[in-house]
Structures are given as structure tokens and as C-alpha cells.
Amino acid sequence: MYQAQQAYAPTPHSYIPNTTLSATINLDEEVKLAETRAERDLQDSLAEVFSIIITLDELEKAYLKDAILESDYTEICDRLLKQYKAILTDDAVSREFVDLETFKGEWDMEVPRATERIRIGLPSTVTAPTHNAASTSGSNINGTLILEATQEFITFLDALKLGFLAKDQLHPLLSEVIQTVNKVTDRDFDGRGKIIQWLITLNQMKATEELSEDQARELDLDMNAAYQGFKSTLA
After folding, report:
1. How far is CA 176 from the centre of its chain?
2. Any residues with CB less than 8 A from the CB of 225 and at least 6 apart, and which?
3. Which residues touch 160 (CB under 8 Å, ≥6 apart)?
4. Burial track 87-117 (b if 16+ CB lie within 10 A, e otherwise)
């Protein structure tokens, strides 16, 4: 006859349980991941950053598959990027986050499309000419759009002359330049690529970080060349 199976694993006879090592955790008690409000806020912020990155990657996939309207994509992408930047302006969150590559590695995130979009800092519809851009041939040119684009170029160049060198001063102005230009023409022109490169450079800087004098001179030359290139598409 077989012996009845024990309901627990047998132990050596020499083993004597140590009651002083008994678990002190109350299994009915909720486990707190943070002890203070500051810790909870930090965890919530990092969770939001995680969610934004994942959502941004899925949004990029949908846009590439034409599964979302350009206008909807632009609005959502722009909002996500602004939320991402806003959350990371908090010093505590920024210190814990470190940088995007570190955060991705810590949480084993595979998000190549979101990584590229965050690196550029603008929706794809902004950095590339929109399909709805006005024709630049003959009388089809929209005079109002041309005037707006010209004014944005001049405003940006004037800002450089006035000594504006910080990211938070130049990036919004340069974003307006490329957005208004894209409304006028879908044609590439001399210097357009430089505008995109400078947008990326500025986006990767800290908000109050400033360009060096050499960078400022180079930016001024590139933007004047881009302005001339833009005007050549209108001829």
C-alpha cells in the first residue's frame, strides 16, 4: 500500500523552525509603492512619460499606414510632444528619467519611431511639406500665405540680430518658419534641409541653453540662404 501523500514538502528531522523569522507582512494590507506624496508624483510623472512614448510610437505607425488623417496626426503628435517636454521640465522627473536612451533601456522599450519623433521634436507633417501645400506655379500662389512665411523668416532673422540665442527663444520662431513655408510650397529648395537640421539641434538643447557665437553666425548664414532659396521657388 502506498502512503498517503503529504500536503507539504517533507523537511529533515534536524530542522527546527525559527519563529523569529516569521513574515511580518500583512497580506490584507495594500502595498505602497511610494511613502510620500513627492514619490507618488514622481512615479505618476514617469508613468505618463512611458505612456506618451508608447502612444507616440503607435501614432507614427498609424500615420505611415495612412490609418489616420494628417490633421488628426499633427494635432495629436504635437500635443504628445508638448506633454513629454512639459513633464520633463520638472527637475526631479528629469533626474530620474536621465535621458531617453537610459529610460528605454531601463524599461526594455522598443520604440524606434517615437525615438526619432522625439529627437526631431516636431510632427512629420511639419518637417515635411504637406500634401495640401499651395501650388507655387503662376497665379495659383496664395499671397497671404507667402506674406506669412516671409514675415516669419524676417522675424527669426531679426531675433538673431537682437541676440536671441536660447532654445526657448529660437525654437518656437523657427517652427513657425517651417510651418508657414510648408503651407506655401511642397517643393524642396536650397537651405530647407538646414532649417530642419537647426530645429533638431535646438530641440536637443535644454530650454535655457544658448547657442555659441559661432553657432549663431552659422545659423544666420543658413537662414539667409534658406530665405533666398524659398523666394526662388516663387519666381
Report:
1. 17
2. 190, 191, 194
3. 170, 216, 219, 220, 223
4. bbeeeebeebbeebeebbeeeebebebbbeb
What is the rounded average pLDDT for all residues in the chain?
86
DSSP 210: B
Residue 139 has pLDDT above 80, yes or no: no
Q: Say yes or no to pLDDT of 26 above 90.
A: no
Task: Give me 108's grid cell.
Answer: 526594455
Model pLDDT, residue 12: 47
CA-to-CA distance for 152 and 168, rounded, in angstroms? 16
- CA distances (Å), origin 118, targets 82, 128, 203: 10, 15, 9
Taking the C-alpha atoms of residue 41 and residue 93, their distance in angstroms, rounded to an integer, is 9
With a CB cutoff of 8 Å and minimum separation 6, the contacts of 171 are: 121, 199, 202, 203
d(CA 158, CA 171): 14
Q: Minimum mean pLDDT among 23-27, 81-85, 166-170: which range?
A: 23-27
Smallest CA-to-CA distance from 171 within 190, 150, 195 is with 195
Model's pTM, two decimal places? 0.74
The per-residue pLDDT for 34 is 65
Q: How confident is the model at residue 29 (pLDDT cuts 50, 70, 90)?
A: low
Asked if residue 199 lies in contact with residue 120, where contact means CB atoms within 8 angstroms, the answer is yes
Q: Which residues contact 121 (CB under 8 A, 6 or more apart)?
A: 81, 85, 171, 199, 200, 202, 203, 204
Distance CA 156, CA 51 (A): 34
